[in-house]
Design brief:
The chain is mostly helical and 124 residues long. The chain contains 4 helices and no strands. Helix 1 packs antiparallel against helix 2 and helix 2 packs antiparallel against helix 3.
């Protein structure tokens, strides 16, 4: 049925992102535990926590969208999606590669996540 939340690209992205978050969390807990420094494992866990929380937020976005205000609330979905990729993606990659230069990308992702919440609250 058209118009249901499951028809939204934000619903699909959130659902697939959540599944990826669970897999990456399990990978970190089992495969990385004896391989990476405990400090880096904490970075992985932080990345995964934000990944999962914001995947859930993505699932909420389609519930706020009506035909009247679609453009307003869809901004929050895009910001959450970009934020997950930049914030969590850069931290996952940092842990796997040890390339600390990737840490420069992380705050941009964090700003996108914050912007997603603000856009969701105010429909901007």
């Amino acid at each position: 049925m058209p118009g249901l939340p499951v028809d939204s690209p934000f619903w699909r992205f959130g659902a697939f992102s959540g599944a990826a978050g669970v897999m990456l969390g399990a990978f970190g807990a089992h495969a990385l535990q004896n391989i990476v420094d405990p400090k880096m494992l904490t970075v992985w866990e932080t990345s995964n926590r934000y990944h999962i929380f914001h995947s859930l937020a993505m699932l909420f976005v389609p519930l706020t969208i009506t035909s009247r205000d679609q453009a307003k609330y869809s901004k929050s979905g895009w910001l959450f999606g970009i934020g997950i990729l930049l914030f969590s993606g850069s931290l996952y990659t940092l842990v796997l590669t040890g390339n600390k230069k990737l840490g420069a990308i992380t705050p941009i992702g964090g700003l996108c996540l914050i912007g997603g919440w603000v856009a969701l609250a105010f429909g901007v």
